[in-house]
Each structure stands twice: as structure tokens, then as C-alpha cells.
């Protein structure tokens, strides 16, 4: 038992740290995106009325579709909606026993789903590092980089379903890799990989893109080693985990729209010219992944080492990244706005960060300029993410409306209307950092020049200041827009969470120092060594 606890201690500390950290830095904007709001209303209908349709949807447009019985339904996969159910019930319990308002309490409770999933994603990432035989020190540092200095942090706080998708894909990859690493003999790992993939598809329909990649990965290795007769058995094991969720999705769609093949999607989705969208996703000042996660500039140095150590796994990682970028470059709303950065690409984040572990493993032997570059890029990225979570994103949109009000192309709401992506001055990264400065001066120095209240674009568009807390810091404990409990109680909880995060971070640092940190694989290919061992 002591040995098990000792082995699990680092992962548990990782999860506890990120749970406290994400809960402490969570925002108060409970209406920030219509997608999650519609899913929440469906959760509410399921729990309170035992139905899948929404009485009075807060969001109109193509996301609400008339279905069975002439009722309005949201058109999403059921994953996030159903995962919110226990949180919604807990919110009702807390509201009842603490005499809190039911509406705001259940919203806050449901909104914490992604925060807990974000902590689980950090654990999965840490376990993937360990499965790659990275040292304990490298695994902890790399996980902290992933969870704080990449968009994984703002995304976990966004309330969107992307964190849930990222978690299930990473778990599917982890279990598939453990199957391969341990000699491709124990198909229970493939069943677990299939279950994780099924849950991913249960959360987002387009997760189906990754299912063939996950199934083909061990099959190609079987083919290469001459074990071709084993492929069908592998696919049966993997499929046994996926199929139940495919059937559940079919029932979900049949119950809403009368057919297991009708997802309710009625609007055009594809055929954006990739020569427009792909550069936007990669390098545009408004959405380029290289700016929202600048650590990727070091991939050319890290990737060569990663390929030598894990050649077949590199192909799987590359396939996931290429499929993600390629698919979403064809989507009309490739930018995913309103959102921080190219949110549809965040499913690829773990596979862009994991290769950097090779730089940390050879830290003392690498040139000083490379080490300084890594520290600088990680620090810059952490500042970028912190600026986003510190001030509500709708302050950026307010300022964008103002900036474009007197141009030849005034601002309009709509996923095909936004056009700020190549204007450096309108980059959300730069504007958000300035927003932190402005709100700080407004709050601490009373500088009223930075209080945004007037309609930003006349009567042409709605005013974000009327609906969102754009003149305060975004943290739930600092905002009065959607206040829950008294100010002192909120402050006490925030301090408790901050202390908890500090304690678990301290424990992680102690574990890095006290526990053995040597790698089991020192040179050569880890895949080759594990294959020889089997």
C-alpha cells in the first residue's frame, strides 16, 4: 500500500494543485458563451423536468433546432450536458441548505465542471510524461508548463467543452501507448483506449476524426512486426469501448430529431478556403497558435530528439496535429470566436508540448541560448494566459467595436463577420495585457477614463457593458456582477484555495527533490527497448 501511495503521490499532488489553482482563478462570467449556456439549460431540463428540450432558450439562432414534438433543442452532442448533471444537482443542494439563489448557484456549480476536468487533464498529461519514461522532475515541470503557460489554462476556465475533449483524447492516446509499450499483449489497455475515445465522441461529434488514428496506430505496428492476424482482435477490443457511446449518441439524436443520423446541424459548416484560414490559425496576430503558445518555436530542436526516442508515437502525434489543423481550416468559423485564441486547435496542445520534455531532460547539456529561449518563451506565454483570465474577454470585444465603429467595415456580430485577425493593433494578446493595466488603474487608482459603459457602436450592435463584468477583474471572488455569497466569504474561499495551491505546489517541489528522478531509458529508442523487453 505504501508503495502504491508513493507512486501515486506526484499525480495526486498535480491534480490537487491544478484543482485549487483553476478554482481560485475561475471567472465570474456565466454568460460568456452561448454554447455552454444552451447545454446548461438542457441539463436543467433533464434534472428538473425529465426532458431533453428547453422551455425558453437564452440563445437563439441555428444552435437551437425544432425537433420531436415541435420543441426547441440544442444541437450538441450530450457529453458536457450530461456531465453537468451531478454538478447541477449539487448546486441545488447547496442553494437549498445555504439559502443561496438557485439560479446563480446552479450556474456556478455547473461551470466548475471544466475546472475539475482541467485538473484531470493535467494528471493525464503528467501520466503521459511518465509513460514516456521522462524523469519525475521533467514530468512535473512540463506539466506545470502545460497547465499554466499554454491556453490549457484559459480554456479550462472558458466553460466550453474543449477541455473535456482534450482529456478523453489524451487518455485514449495514453492507454494506446501503454498497450504498445508493454508489448501489445494486454488488450485491456485497448478497451480503455476505446472507452476514452467513445467518451470523446460522446462529447463532440467531430471527435470521430481521431478514432481511426487511434485504431490504426497499433495496427500499423502489428503489420510492421508481422503480427497481422492480431489486428482484428485489437480492433474488436478497441471497438468494444467505442460502440456503446456510438449507440448512445444514436439514441440521443433519435430522441431529439427522430433519427439516429440527424444531429440537428442545419447551417453550412465547411469549405472555408484553407489558404485564408490556415495562415490565420498558424500565424495571424489575432488567432495564430504560435503567439498564443510561443513554446512551439522550440519544436524544431525538440522534435528531432523526440523522433529518435519515440518514432512511432511521433507519427501518431503528428497525425493528430495535422488532422486537427487540416480539418478546422475547412470550417467556416475556423477562428472559434468569441474565444481566446484558436480554440479548436487546443485538442493538439499536449502533442505540441510533450516533445519539449526532451529539452528539459538534457537541460545541463544544452546551449545556454536554448535554455534562455525556453525560459523566456514559457514566461511570455504564462503572462499571455494570465492576461486573458484576469480581465473578461468581452472588454476586448467592446474595444474592438469601438475601434471598428468608424471604419469602412464596421463591427458586426456573427462568426463570418469578424475581420480583425491580421491587424496587429487589434490582437487580443496585446489588448488583453492593456486591459489588465486599464482595469488596474480603474480599480486601484479610480481612473474613470477606463470605465467602459457607453454604447461602443451606437445602436448598430449590443453593448457588452450591459451584460458582462468588463470593468472589474474577471475572477469570481472579485466581481459583483454575478456575486454569490458575501464579499468576505468569497475572499475567504479564495484565500483558502490559494493556500491549497501553494501547499500542493510546495509538495511537488519537495517530491522533485526527494524522490528518485532518474529515467529508466537513457539512450536509444524507448520503443525499441520496450519491444525487446517483451
Task: Describe the protein in words.
By secondary structure, the chain is mostly helical. The chain is built from 23 helices and three strands. It has a two-stranded antiparallel ribbon. Helices cover 61% and strands 2% of the residues. The longest helix has 28 residues, at 230-257. It starts with a helix and ends with a helix. The chain folds into three domains: 30-111, no CATH class; 140-387, no CATH class; 392-472, no CATH class.
Key structural traits:
61% helix, two-stranded antiparallel sheet, 534 residues, disordered C terminus, single chain, 3 strands, 3 domains, mainly alpha, 2% strand, globular
Backbone CA Rg: 24 Å
Overall helicity: 55-70%
Q: State the distance separating the first and last CA atoms.
A: 27 Å
Provide the number of structural domains: 3
As residue ranges, the low-confidence spans are 520-524, 528-534
Number of helical segments with 4 or more residues = 23
**Structural class per helix/strand content?**
mainly alpha
Overall outline: globular
Element order: H for helix, E for strand: HHEEHHHHHHHHHHHHHHHHHHHEHH
Number of strands: 3
Query: What is the beta-strand fraction?
Result: under 5%
Mean pLDDT: 91
Biggest sheet strand order reads: 1-2
Largest sheet: number of strands, sense, barrel closure: 2 strands, antiparallel
Q: Could you give a short description of this structure?
A:
The protein is mainly α. Helix content is 61%, strand content 2%.
Amino acid at each position: 500500500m505504501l508503495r502504491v501511495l508513493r507512486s501515486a503521490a506526484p499525480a495526486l499532488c498535480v491534480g490537487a494543485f491544478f484543482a485549487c489553482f483553476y478554482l481560485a482563478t475561475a471567472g465570474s462570467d456565466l454568460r460568456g458563451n452561448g454554447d455552454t449556456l444552451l447545454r446548461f439549460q438542457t441539463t436543467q431540463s433533464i434534472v428538473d423536468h425529465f426532458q431533453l428540450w428547453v422551455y425558453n432558450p437564452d440563445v437563439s439562432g441555428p444552435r437551437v433546432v425544432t425537433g420531436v414534438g415541435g420543441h426547441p433543442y440544442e444541437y450538441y452532442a450530450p457529453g458536457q450536458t450530461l456531465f453537468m448533471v451531478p454538478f447541477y444537482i449539487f448546486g441545488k443542494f447547496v442553494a437549498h441548505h445555504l439559502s443561496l439563489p438557485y439560479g446563480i448557484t446552479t450556474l456556478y456549480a455547473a461551470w466548475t465542471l471544466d475546472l475539475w476536468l482541467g485538473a484531470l487533464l493535467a494528471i493525464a498529461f503528467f501520466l503521459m510524461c511518465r509513460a514516456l519514461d521522462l524523469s519525475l522532475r521533467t514530468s512535473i515541470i512540463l506539466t506545470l508548463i502545460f497547465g499554466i503557460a499554454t491556453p490549457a489554462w484559459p480554456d479550462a476556465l472558458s466553460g466550453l467543452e474543449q477541455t473535456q475533449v482534450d482529456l478523453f483524447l489524451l487518455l485514449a492516446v495514453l492507454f494506446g501507448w501503454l498497450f504498445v509499450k508493454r508489448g501489445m499483449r494486454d488488450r485491456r489497455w485497448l478497451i480503455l483506449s476505446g472507452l476514452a475515445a467513445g467518451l470523446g465522441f460522446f462529447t463532440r461529434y467531430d471527435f470521430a476524426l481521431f478514432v481511426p488514428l487511434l485504431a490504426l496506430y497499433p495496427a500499423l505496428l502489428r503489420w510492421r512486426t508481422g503480427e497481422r492476424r492480431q489486428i482484428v482482435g485489437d480492433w474488436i477490443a478497441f471497438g468494444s469501448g467505442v460502440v456503446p457511446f456510438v449507440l448512445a449518441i444514436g439514441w440521443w439524436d433519435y430522441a431529439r430529431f427522430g433519427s439516429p443520423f440527424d444531429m440537428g446541424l442545419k447551417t453550412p459548416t465547411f469549405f472555408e478556403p484553407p489558404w485564408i484560414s490556415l495562415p490565420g490559425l498558424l500565424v495571424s496576430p489575432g488567432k495564430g497558435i504560435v503567439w498564443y503558445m510561443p513554446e512551439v518555436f522550440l519544436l524544431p530542436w525538440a522534435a528531432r530528439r523526440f523522433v529518435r526516442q519515440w518514432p512511432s508515437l511521433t507519427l501518431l502525434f503528428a497525425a493528430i496535429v495535422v488532422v486537427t489543423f487540416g480539418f478546422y481550416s475547412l470550417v467556416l468559423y475556423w477562428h472559434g470566436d468569441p474565444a481566446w485564441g484558436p480554440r479548436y486547435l487546443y485538442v493538439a496542445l499536449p502533442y505540441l508540448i510533450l516533445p519539449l520534455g526532451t529539452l528539459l531532460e538534457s537541460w545541463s547539456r544544452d546551449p545556454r541560448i536554448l535554455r534562455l529561449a525556453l525560459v523566456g518563451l514559457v514566461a511570455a506565454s504564462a503572462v499571455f494566459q494570465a492576461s486573458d483570465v484576469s480581465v473578461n474577454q468581452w472588454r476586448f470585444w467592446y474595444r474592438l467595436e469601438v475601434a471598428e465603429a468608424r471604419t469602412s467595415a464596421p463591427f458586426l456580430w456573427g462568426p463570418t463577420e469578424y475581420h480583425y485577425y491580421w491587424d496587429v493593433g487589434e490582437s487580443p494578446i496585446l489588448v488583453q495585457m492593456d486591459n489588465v493595466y486599464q482595469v488596474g488603474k480603474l480599480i486601484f487608482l479610480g481612473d474613470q477614463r477606463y470605465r467602459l459603459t457607453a454604447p461602443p457602436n451606437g445602436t448598430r450592435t449590443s453593448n457588452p457593458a450591459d451584460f458582462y463584468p468588463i470593468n472589474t477583474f474577471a475572477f469570481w471572488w472579485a466581481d459583483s456582477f454575478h456575486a454569490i455569497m458575501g464579499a468576505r466569504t468569497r475572499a475567504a474561499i479564495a484565500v483558502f484555495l490559494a493556500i491549497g495551491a501553494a501547499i500542493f505546489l510546495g509538495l511537488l517541489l519537495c517530491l522533485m527533490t526527494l524522490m528518485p528522478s532518474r529515467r529508466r531509458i537513457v539512450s536509444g529508442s524507448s520503443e525499441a527497448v520496450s519491444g525487446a523487453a517483451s
